[in-house]
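Example record

The entry below shows one chain as it appears in the dataset: sequence first, then structure tokens.
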Amino acid sequence: MSEAKTEKPMRKIPRATLRVWAKHYAETKQGGKCPLCGETIELATRGNKTDWVVDHDHETGEIRGVLHRSCNGAEGKAANAMGRWGAKSMSYKDIVPFAKRLVAYWESEGAGVMYPDHKTPEERKEAQRVKRNKAEALRRAKKKLAERQKAES
């Protein structure tokens, strides 16, 4: 969140110690797990590459945690999309309430009627059968036409 959680000023971590700090934080505060997906974070380093990143609030600079690189990308894309299209603000103070309302909306009961263009599993299966039959009929017609043209030659 962009609003400071504590009254005291935050200490800035030097880049030279960030990797060591992040590994320690992930192990001790997060139990070695990604807070978003809940899966174990592989904290090994391969050259200068890692499967994890230090996530931070882009408004305040406060570090929120250590995430899988892919989860961090998903978080950024979700925040961007919700900010631009839903909350209509790029501030986390507006995005977070929107995200909470969105999750509540997803978890709420539906209206009890189906969207007109939606296909049930049975309707999809029938559409696939019809498509296969049409493709087979076309293949047979082309074969028959080719045989006629060959006979006429």
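Notes for this example: The two ends are 78 Å apart (CA to CA). Residues 121-152 form the longest helix (32 residues).
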